[in-house]
């Protein structure tokens, strides 16, 4: 039964990744249909992110009332409905409307699933599950690409992913009895406290502000690298745009392969050691981008940044029950997720301003500054939580 539930959770993590890269892959074919500027993708993305932040902050309350299984099924179902809504939208403002449940569904399922795995499974599964997220993030654009190349249009691309999410929702509903029998660090209650914690109460927990800062910096670094690496290769290293677009995938290759390898390494190294190792590899990758050592070294640096990012996110999450206690982990992980999405919203556009008004060549320096913030906040977290949850 435990292994069957784990298989369902692996499918759920693939589901988490499926919608994440759809907008970027479909937007070049979408914006002309609605007669809006290409920049309007940012508005939809911000609405989705805002919904994700709100639902992440409410994940503790939702999980306490419904349980992680029901929250996961409800959230995936909500995402399926939102994707179907995208597929039938005839105006830009309808897209904005459907972006609300799109984001609300993503945040609550992300926090609930991550907390459940942190409580009930070994660190290696957290790394491999996030590797499955990368698989889902790769499948989404592939499905959209097949729909576009086959003449079905972006609408059908969204609809195909929606149908996949509907199928997974049915699987999750059938699996609900499995979630109630699994015990772990949180016991039968799944690690949910007697009553939900408010944001103010979570922030007052020793180490909470530090882990929020670490997550803000990590996701700011990851998303800035994803969004701007192709432009950096073209504008600063002279690589043609069509080739640079393909090379930008080296980051995803690094993070996906890295998470697969991290699952094995966690059998030997602790979460803190894995995070430090990842930070060190990221620093080497940024140095390779910064130094004028040729195109091959620059591309290797991009892959190394992805490889270094690989263990950080899953290992920080997996360590949360040990740092803050199983009874408070759901609330803390929800706030961590919200901090991550705030970093995703703010840091890439901030670099865009720097690139426009100073130079896009600042990308490695900018990434290095964010990495320094991540290292400092994570080390502060370890010091404040050295004695375990208080």
Detailed description of the structure:
The chain has 390 residues and is mainly α. It contains 18 helices and no strands. It starts with a helix and ends in a 6-residue tail after the last helix.
Summarize it.
The chain is built from 18 helices and no strands.
Q: Quick one: how many beta strands?
A: 0
Poorly predicted regions are 183-193
State the separation between the terminal residues, measured CA to CA: 34 Å
Percentage of residues in strands: under 5%
- Give the CA-based shape: globular
Can you write the helix and strand succession as a string?
Answer: HHHHHHHHHHHHHHHHHH
Summed over residues and divided by their number, the pLDDT gives a mean of 82
| Helix residue percentage | over 70%
List keywords for this structure.
single chain, 390 residues, mainly alpha, 81% helix, globular
Show the helix and strand layout.
Elements: H1 2-17, H2 22-34, H3 41-57, H4 59-66, H5 68-87, H6 92-120, H7 123-149, H8 154-174, H9 176-181, H10 199-203, H11 208-237, H12 241-247, H13 249-265, H14 271-290, H15 295-309, H16 312-324, H17 329-357, H18 363-384
Helix pairs in contact: 1-6, 1-7, 1-8, 2-7, 3-6, 3-17, 4-5, 4-6, 4-17, 5-6, 5-8, 6-16, 6-17, 7-8, 7-13, 7-16, 11-12, 11-15, 11-16, 11-17, 11-18, 13-15, 14-15, 14-16, 14-18
């Amino acid at each position: 039964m435990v292994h069957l539930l784990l298989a369902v959770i692996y499918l759920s993590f693939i589901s988490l990744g499926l919608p994440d890269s759809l907008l970027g892959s479909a937007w070049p074919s979408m914006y002309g249909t609605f007669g809006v500027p290409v920049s309007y993708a940012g508005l939809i993305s911000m609405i989705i992110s805002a919904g994700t932040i709100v639902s992440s902050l409410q994940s503790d309350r939702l999980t306490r009332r419904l349980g992680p299984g029901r929250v996961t099924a409800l959230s995936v179902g909500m995402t399926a409905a939102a994707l179907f809504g995208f597929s039938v939208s005839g105006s830009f403002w309808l897209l904005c409307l459907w972006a609300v449940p799109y984001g609300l569904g993503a945040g609550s399922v992300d926090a609930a699933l991550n907390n459940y795995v942190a409580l009930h499974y070994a660190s290696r599964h957290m790394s491999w599950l996030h590797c499955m997220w990368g698989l889902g993030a790769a499948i989404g654009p592939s499905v959209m690409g097949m729909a576009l190349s086959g003449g079905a249009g972006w609408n059908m691309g969204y609809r195909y992913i929606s149908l996949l999410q509907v199928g997974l929702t049915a699987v999750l509903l059938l699996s609900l009895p499995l979630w109630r029998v699994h015990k772990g660090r949180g016991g039968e209650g799944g690690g949910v406290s007697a009553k939900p914690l408010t944001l103010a109460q979570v922030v007052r927990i020793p180490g909470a502000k530090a882990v929020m800062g670490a997550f803000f910096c990590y996701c700011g670094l990851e998303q800035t690298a994803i969004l701007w690496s192709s432009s950096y290769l073209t504008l600063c290293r002279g690589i043609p745009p069509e080739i640079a677009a393909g090379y930008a995938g080296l980051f995803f290759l690094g993070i996906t392969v890295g998470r697969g390898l991290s699952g094995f390494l966690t059998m030997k190294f602790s979460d803190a050691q894995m995070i430090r190792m990842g930070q060190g590899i990221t620093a080497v990758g940024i140095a390779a981008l910064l130094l004028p050592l040729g195109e091959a070294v620059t591309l290797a640096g991009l892959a190394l940044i992805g490889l270094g990012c690989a263990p950080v996110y899953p290992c920080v999450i997996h360590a949360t029950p040990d740092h803050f206690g199983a009874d408070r982990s759901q609330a803390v992980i929800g706030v961590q997720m919200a901090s991550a999405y705030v970093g995703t919203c703010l840091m890439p556009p901030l670099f865009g301003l720097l690139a426009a008004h100073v130079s896009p060549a600042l990308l490695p320096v900018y990434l290095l500054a964010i990495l320094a913030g991540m290292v400092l906040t994570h080390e502060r977290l370890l010091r404040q939580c050295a004695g375990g949850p208080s």
